[in-house]
Amino acid sequence: MKKLITATIAAVVLSSAAYADTIKVGVVGPFSGPFALQGKNFKAGIDAYFALNGNTVGDDTIEVIYRDVPQADPAQSKALAQELVVKEGVQYLAGFYFTPDAMAATPILEQGNVPMVVMNAATSAIVTKSPYVVRTSFTTWQTSTPIAKVAKDAGVNKVISIVSDYGPGVDAENAFKAAFEKEGGEVVEAIRMPLSTNDFSPIMQRVKDSGAEAVFAFLPSGPTTLGFVKAFNQNGLKDGGIKLFAPGDLTQESDLPALGDSALGMQTTFHYAVSHDSPENTAFVEAARKAIGNPAELSFPAVGAFDGMYVITKMIEATGGEQDAAKAVDAVKGLSWTSPRGPVTIDPESRHITQNIYLREVTKAEDGSYFNKEIQTFENQGDPGLAAAK
Amino acid sequence: MQTVFSIAVDALAYGMVLFVISIGLSVTMGLMRVVNLAHGAFAMIGGYIASYAARDLGVGYAAAVLLAVVGTVLIAIPIERFLYRRIYGAPELTQVLMTIGITFCVIGIANFVFGPTLKTIPLPETLQGSVDLGFRSIATHRIFAIACGLVVAGGLWFLIERTAFGIKIRASVDNASMAAALGVRTEIVYAVSFAVAIGLAAFGGVVGAELLPVEPYYALRYMVTFLVVVSVGGAGSILGALLACLLLGAIDTTGRYLAPEYGEFFFYLAVIIIVILFPRGLAGRFK
Predict the structure, then answer these.
(1) What is the pTM (predicted TM-score) of this model?
(2) How crowded is residue A1: how many other Cβ atoms within 10 Å of its Cβ?
(3) Among A4-13, B31-40, B239-248, which stretch is predicted with the lowest mean pLDDT?
(4) Better-predicted residue by pLDDT, A128 or B236
(5) So which residues are the signal peptide here (chain A) (predicted)?
């Protein structure tokens, strides 16, 4: 009898030792409220990754735990990140749609021995806040810089810059100004308008009075974009030959059905278009659309999340499932792979993703839907924002 | 000079859109004494119905507007019977809590049914494009919005000041029990005024959709603006609301043209000054 019990205990102990670990990944993002669509895209990207590659690394299984921060709220973000690390015992933190949310959680990383993979937040400085931050999205500087060259090549010398008055808007204004002046152009006026602006006619009148040949604009994606582009057309600026340049936030895929004809022909630069033509992207889009439910809702945060999961699996591979943030981050420095958006590398210095930035034009497809058609590629763009900040 | 004209035209258009949406709230708050924070939610429902009718069912713009108004009123009838009727005459706090609750419910339902993306209401050919005014061009639908505002203002004024029903409304507002004693069926008067207010909200939601696009958070996003119009104009006054809209539209537009970096500073500064000078709103002074 005693032998039997011992044998059973031994069997239990042995088998549990042979059982693989479950590695928890905590994802913080906006899953409810006005920005729920972006959180939904995070989830779709992660689900697509598991659908294509499985959720196991070696013997270990990845488990994702989601936490909701409906809008930029650093205190709540920090509290949730801490809860994930302390109570849930996550080995990796990921997600983060808004810059302040990511910034607020960085002090936890070193104490908790946890790497952070930023899947969206786009301010350059985040990666400097902790050596354990890796970013797989983009920065506003990165996507706003190439459009200056596009503007100059189109024969434009005088540009008026119009941005929403908040962090990323100011980043976009500075990035464009720096790049455009380097090209030899001139920013004749820089307007910062409040985030809550909904009537853009007076702004358009100012554009007319300024004598600029083109507008550089940055607004967060969503309702205001529609009002802005419509005001631009209806006040006769488009017909008056004034060009509109912007980073791709303005023509996010989920806004295109609403923008419709008014955005047709608009040129933007961005790191990812759902229409990107590659086998990797075809597979990704199919899986992500299935995960998100409504195909029209898929847009850029999904690809940041997809690549974020790839980076996390590489970290798990390198550490063998052990909790070792320094080793995990070191393992992905300089990592290169083919993402759905094209060839990418994690820059070993900044731990930010180096990627192609594409010039796209809003085009009508044969079935009457609208998409961002890639027409020019700026290869291997790093983040000019960090250099500018120094 | 040209700039002044130009700003004036923009201000007029913006003010009129504000007026069409807010006047319904002014009616509920002034005539029925209900602080209806769910007003924007009803405007949003109107916008969603019009968008669904025009885009998915393919009906014309006029039919879509009509459907939106009728549909929103139909949705509002049970809400009035079962929820609003309990808060007539209740303290403001009760009214605020219940109507904001309704707002959140509507936001949740809209998000669930229509999704978080923007919805547009396709305009007919005649309202698309822009009209050349000589010194500048203006979008045709804005002229349409200005016209709608004038028609609504005139129609409401006629209804309240010049018809037998208007007399009953005013009587019920001044002294409900005395009006009832004299044979006015106040509950019907209230129900009809509520329906008119909701219909106007839906109409405003559709006409103003080019400026304030329809999405689930519409109901909260513009709530403060609508409330400001009513408090500056004086609740229940058509002329007051019209004046408030034109004045606030002018200040907001001028501020945005001349100094956009100050944000809505001038708008709220004007609101503070007006409310200090006329605590009962612009039209309250005439009483």
Answers:
(1) 0.81
(2) 5
(3) A4-13
(4) A128
(5) 1-20
Closest CB from A198, A209, A223 relative to B3: A209
Question: Which DSSP symbol is given to B163?
Answer: S
Whether residue B130 lies within 8 A of chain A, CB to CB, comes out as: yes
Q: Do B212 and A198 touch (CB under 8 A)?
A: yes
Q: What is the percentage of chain A residues whose pLDDT exceeds 70?
A: 94
Contact assignment for A294 to B115 by CB distance below 8 Å: yes
Q: Provide CB contacts within 8 A for A106, sequence distance 6+.
A: A116, A126, A129, A130, A133
For B6, which of A191, A205, A296 is closest by C-beta distance? A205
Are residues A226 and B14, on separate chains, in Cβ contact within 8 Å?
A: no
- Measured between CB atoms, which of A37, A203, A257 is closest to B256? A203
Q: Which residues pair with A187 in a beta bridge?
A: A159
| Cα A258 from Cα A52, distance rounded (Å) | 31
Which amino acid is present at B287? Answer: K
pLDDT at A295 over 90: no
3-state SS string over chain A?
CHHHHHHHHHHHHHHHHHCCCEEEEEEEECCCCCCHHHHHHHHHHHHHHHHHHCCEECCEEEEEEEEECCCCCHHHHHHHHHHHHHCCCCCEEEECCCHHHHHHHHHHHHHHCCCEEECCCCCHHHHHCCCCEEECCCCHHHHHHHHHHHHHHCCCCEEEEEEECCHHHHHHHHHHHHHHHHCCCEEEEEEEECCCCCCCHHHHHHHHHHCCCEEEEECCCCHHHHHHHHHHHHCCCCCCCCEEEEEHHHHCHHHHHHHHHHHCCCEEEECCCCCCCCHHHHHHHHHHHHHHCCHHHCCCHHHHHHHHHHHHHHHHHHHCCCCCHHHHHHHHCCCEEEECCEEEEECCCCCEEEEEEEEEEEEECCCCCEEEEEEEEEEEECCHHHHHHC
Quote the mean pLDDT of chain B: 87
- Cβ contacts below 8 Å, chain A against chain B, sum to 105
Q: How far is CA A233 from the centre of its chain?
A: 28
Q: Contact A205/B257, CB-based, under 8 Å?
A: yes
Residue at token pair 């024969």: A155
Alpha-carbon gap, residue B210 to B142, rounded angstroms: 9
Min Cα separation B161/chain A (Å): 33
Instruction: Give residue A274's Cα distance to chain centre.
Output: 13
Substitution target in B256, B262, B268 with the highest count of A β-carbons within 10 Å is B256
CA distance linking residue A66 with residue B214, whole number of Å: 29
Q: Which residues of A touch B216 (CB under 8 A)?
A: 34
d(CA A195, nearest CA chain B) in Å: 8
Specify the DSSP class assigned to residue B274. H
CB contact under 8 A, B213 and A34: no
